[in-house]
Design a protein that fits this description.
disordered C terminus, globular, 28 helices, four-stranded parallel β-sheet, 645 residues, alpha/beta, seven-stranded mixed β-sheet
Length: 645
Amino acid sequence: MGRQVRVGVLGHDVVLGQSGVALRAPVWAMARRDGNRGQGMDKRQAAPDGPDSAARAMALLEAGDRDGALALLHAALSARPACRDADVLHGMACVARAAGRPDLAIGLAGKAVALLPAAHFHITLGCALREQGHVEEARAALAVAVLREPRDARAHAALAGALGELGRWAEAEASLRAARALCPGDMAPLLADRGQPAGAEALYRQIVRLLPDDGAAWANHGAALFALNRHEDARVALEHAAALAPGVAETQNNLGLVLMALGHLPQARTALERARILAPGDARIAVNAATILDELAEGDAAEALYRAVLRDPILAREAEGARAQFNLGTLLLARGAYAEGWRHLEARSRLLPPMRGQGVAEWDGASLPRGRVLLYAEQGLGDAIQFLRYLPDCLRRASVVLDVPHSLHRLLQTMPDPDGQIATRCTVLPPGDPLPDDVVARCGLISLPHRLGMTDIPPFAPYLLPAPAPDLGERPRVGLCWAGNPSFRFDRRRSIPAHRLAPLADVPGLFFVSLQYGPAAAAPPFALERSAEGDMLDTARIVAGLDLVITVDTAIAHLAGAMGRPVWLLNRFGGDWRWSATFDRAEPPRWGDRGSRWYPSLEQFRQHQPDDPDTAWAAPIEAVHAALLRWRVGFATGPLADKSA
């Protein structure tokens, strides 16, 4: 799981990380009450304290205090349990949406509408229905909102979003024009869109066409393009937005994140510094600014920003605090402050989607006399492989039910088991099976160092051991993997355009094998043997038959390292915490910059400065090319010392 950042889109937040994208609508857009209610619109009988409590709760929610808002609303209901106040129910629906639970929001907003069919209640109901994927039902609810209050620009804008997602563009444009007529100034606060990314981008494209000189329209189109990983297009849109409206913090924030994703780190820092100047009190922008400082190896400044966010008691318990705490954890681990780093890394549980066993207590690392621990993978295959290293230490304290991706199941059977603990104390949970009744605690794989109280890396021995591959010839076989998962928002920085690896083909006498998976496999840098597709055991068997693996920071690096096979890692500047200098081996490297204490058979070829992305990989690839020439000579003249490491 990489560092966490957030990009603002028309007032809502996009959480970017390996776990994907999560959208949260602006609180005020879903909670604001009709301003002319006192003129007789939406009359009703309500509990005396209900509307006031709801209004105070919405103020808390807008300030980011979701828990405080929920407590106030619960108190309003508890004070008069016989009363069902529409404002309070609507407020709870808004809290549910802010918490990412549109399913709950639908029920609560529906109850509010049944008591009082107010336009803004229908807006909340329609937005929640759309978030849950019920687009036609959302359109119907939002159409009612427009009929009940045709002067509410928010209703027209929300209806435009639903119509756009349904492909009814002529009607969507008409709704946008109506919203524009009702709100001739800045439309940005009206256009909260939580549809599918492609639908959102299409809608924002229509808005740009309608409002070609509106900086907010361009900014939000850029953010929608970023959500689709169309980084270059997003950069063009955001730079145009910044030219139209240079003093908008959201635009500078989003531009900074796009530039960071593209690898333009100094320019990204400049944009995020501008955003901080424009919005010095915005914790989200502060965390993003700290992230780019961390990427630029300015750890002291980044740490100060993270800790400043965490000193605020309200922010510390909200999403911004979780992001600051998690990112601080990665920074501390990269510096060797293991105990505090592992502890802060626990904040990821507040950022990730719910995992298996939500109702089960967290394991504290103590020995369990009875029952078992659910040990689960949270993120990618690389993380799972890396932290399986701690499984034997875990099994000395508790029996385990292991829940990991199915592609790892057969590979797990190759783990050595000298003391019989894995076979007798670890059960792999088959796909789709319910949680066993004797599971009494749960723990993420990445939490094992913290829960076990291990402040350093345990001694290494290869722990994934597929059967050795047959000898396939005298020419040394080199595996190559040049790209990671493109859905990772910052994949452009860790992956290498295939054509840049073409010089490696000039090294004579080598036989190259592709270890690439996903879309990038279709466009290799030169002629390679194509590996058969399969699960991770099939990949491991191919790796076992290679003399060397060259890869970027993907699961392939962890797989080859865990097997003890020679692996050269091409690593970006400011890369992941686990490859930082803190984890370097003390012994001089044979081929690259430094070896790794995670995997002694791994050596890194690092980017040493934040170069422009067009040239950033030139020096590491040149170093790999030179090392390959020397490695090939050693292979030809005698067995390499690390050939069977």
